[in-house]
Design brief:
Rossmann fold; single chain; 308 residues; 4Fe-4S; binds iron/sulfur cluster; four-stranded parallel sheet; binds 1,3-dihydroxyacetonephosphate; pyridine nucleotide biosynthesis; transferase; globular
């Protein structure tokens, strides 16, 4: 799209947002133009809190559908618009309800800890939700010794390594974008950019995390690149974060570890779809009354434990 048309579209979105009393939220993984038109850009945790605290009646959630769904559950009085209903995170479905029931039978003090990258249905079967930036704090605050961590096996392993006093049962869910990164990819990138620090999201595999100088949520990775003395970074997560990193540290260099670090679902959110959902006030995130009640409990508990 020509630059001039893009700017016109952004102006139209801003005008519609004002007319509809809407706040536009965007995850760091969506396209840079969509990030630029948003009121707030953040990681999953920051966006969940912002959706809650903002006074506007409408929330436009530019991210994958579980994010809009969580905002809908936590804000029953607001209208939550999701620009693309097919932008589903595959990991959100990688849970077996039967396995949760079996684990509860096996361990009587079990806490089912559910990464926010999950459907409302799986949240409703859990005791508490977490995001990548608050998982350690929330898990440490739980009294339970036995933790069944769903759906992401890699985030679960990363947290388990830091809390050896608890018994973690890991699930086999994964993010295909992060697990496509291999130790070999890092070796190749490091040969090309030997002065770089390696930073990784905890959804990466162990072999990748073991090579990283720093591991953190998208927000934590961005903040690390701002505060760290290094001038160059090899980034092991979805390439959308490079947009904010470059904005905050224009003098530094950022390299995506490979060409595959693109989440196809996050990238379904386009300026046109943001404009159209505001114009038509649809599609909306919808969760049944029953599911809203049962899935709000673990989300509220996360917000409470993470804010202590
Ligand atoms: P954050 O918790 O860092 O926002 O990550 C969300 C996500 O989808 C990672 O793949
Ligand atoms: Fe899901 Fe991975 Fe995309 Fe995050 S990057 S939304 S975990 S598929």
């Amino acid at each position: 799209m020509a630059e001039i048309d893009k700017e016109k579209l952004k102006a139209e979105i801003r005008r519609l947002a004002q007319e509809r009393d809407a706040v536009i939220l965007a995850h760091y993984y969506v396209d840079g133009d969509v990030q630029d038109v948003a009121d707030f850009v953040g990681d999953s945790y920051a966006l969940a809190k912002t959706a809650r605290g903002d006074p506007r009646k409408t929330v436009v959630f530019c991210g994958v559908t579980f994010m809009g769904e969580s905002a809908c559950v936590l804000n029953p009085d607001k209208t939550v618009l999701i620009p693309e209903t097919s932008a589903v995170c595959p990991m959100a479905l990688m849970v077996d309800a039967e396995k949760i029931r079996a684990m509860r039978e096996k361990y009587d003090d079990l806490a089912v800890v559910c990464y926010i990258n999950s459907t409302a249905e799986f949240k409703s079967l859990s005791d508490v939700c977490v995001t990548s930036s608050n998982a350690l704090k929330v898990v440490r605050a739980l009294k339970n010794k036995n933790i069944f961590f769903i759906p992401d096996g890699n985030l679960g392993r990363f947290i388990a390594e830091q809390v050896p006093e608890k018994n973690f049962i890991l699930n086999d869910g994964f993010c295909h974008v992060h697990t496509s990164i291999t130790a070999r990819d890092i070796e190749t990138a490091f040969r090309e950019h030997p002065d770089s620090k390696i930073i990784a999201h905890p959804e990466c595999m162990k072999e990748v995390c073991d090579m990283a100088d720093f591991i953190g949520s998208t927000k934590e990775l961005i903040e690390f690149t701002e505060s760290d003395g290094a001038g160059s970074f090899i980034v092991c997560t979805e390439s959308g974060v490079l947009h904010e990193m470059r904005k905050r540290s224009p003098g530094k260099q950022f390299f995506s570890v490979g060409a595959r670090q693109v989440c196809p679902n996050m990238k379904k959110i386009t300026l046109e779809k943001v404009r159209d959902c505001l114009a038509g006030m649809a599609p909306r995130a919808r969760v049944s009354e029953e599911l809203r009640d049962s899935s709000s409990r673990p989300l509220e508990r996360m917000l409470e434990l993470a804010s202590r």
